[in-house]
Amino acid sequence: MKKIYKSVLFAIIAAAGFTACSDYEAPDITTESAITITGHDTSFPASASTGSITFEAKGPVTVTTDNEWITATVDGNRIDITVDQNNALTGRSGTITVKCGNATDNISIIQSGIIFKYDKIEPISINSDAWTQSYNADATVPIEVSDDADWINTSIADNKITIAIEANMTLIPRSATITVKCGDLEYSIPVEQEELKFPLFKIQTLRVNDSQSTKTYEFKADIPVKFTTEADWVQADFANNTVSIATEANTTGRIRNATLNYEIAGEAGSLVIVQAEFDKEIAGDFHLTFYDYFNEMELTILPAKLSRNGKNYTLTVTDIYFTGQPVLTIPVEYNDETLSVTISSGSTSIGMFQNYYYFLSPVTMGSDDIALYYTRDQKMNAAFVSTVSSDGTEGLIGQFASVSTNRLNLIGYGIGCFSSNSELSDDTAQGNLEIMINPSLLRIYSAEDAASTDAAKAAARTIKRKAANIPFKISPDSAKKFRRIEL
What we know:
eight-stranded antiparallel β-barrel, 36 strands, single chain, mainly beta, 487 residues
């Protein structure tokens, strides 16, 4: 009983002790942060930029970064941030770590990727003239434009890329490359510029009529041109960006030729000037010369005449059998620009004799044989030029050559004889009056020799194309067609 009393008494004393100390306040053990961020500018465009972070701190502050493209320095209660240009199209991020004593604060830095808007520049291919073009271009970082040629000027201003190419004043084409760069983005634009094209380069023969005239050609260049010619009726000049070729009136009654030579920038060339008119120098009597297939390719001469009735031109051939008959009238086309006549074969009769109809049948040459066709339309053209034979005989000649668009090599015509005016076949074919290989029209200017067959033959043998390499083998399909009619 005594033990119990003592325990109760201790409890009462203890309770009285706590009551006596009820005015005591325990210390506050919560601590404030050593650094407080009060403001920050940490989101940047792709271009090189600056920003800052402001703070309050209870002690010295240090700062570090986790990327080389971020620079951070402490200035008082401000952290100055600098970011390098982001050259990529994608954005990037990094971290700045701020320390004050044992306190640490990590702050994220974000930078956008490049935004580049521009007009696509296609490869440039231009003539020799000067050329300038502008293209829209806008980016969040600087745009660089460069080239590798001193004749190209590139620039960028006011969100436009401008390319200026100087005129090519040389006779040599040239090329270069333009480079556009924006950050890591880079692309190249090839440039091709044609050479200065001297207009006479593409002219081999200049045809003019008998009147006094001047042909002019634009040539924008500052290059000297030298002209020479032995003809006193031709004058050529280059001035004020114009090439001029002047010809005096032709009163000779003959077609005349002149060679005009020129030199420019180390290049030399020439062209032939031909002066004539159909009615004055071309129309009239000719010798139709050809190699006779039926007579072992002997050179043969027949009288012929070129004439015009309005817009219709004809070649009349007579004396095939040296009797003045038959008279064959062949329609021809005349080209005043080229001073040439064109003969066409086909299904139109060129004459009638002894109740037979005559047609031109094309003769073609293959690799080892020749062939003849009844109705196929084939054309041969002869351009007239003045000529001088080896013995000094002056004349006018037009040598026929194939101008057909197919692959057949036309070498002449047969004068085919048929019993029908409409159906041309083996059944109606009677043979050929002649098979003319390498035909041409020849006129001799000498009065005493103009109508002479012997003189024509002598002249033709020295100036006509040879009939060499004409095969005598006949294509199997043409075996029945290569026969001669006996009248």
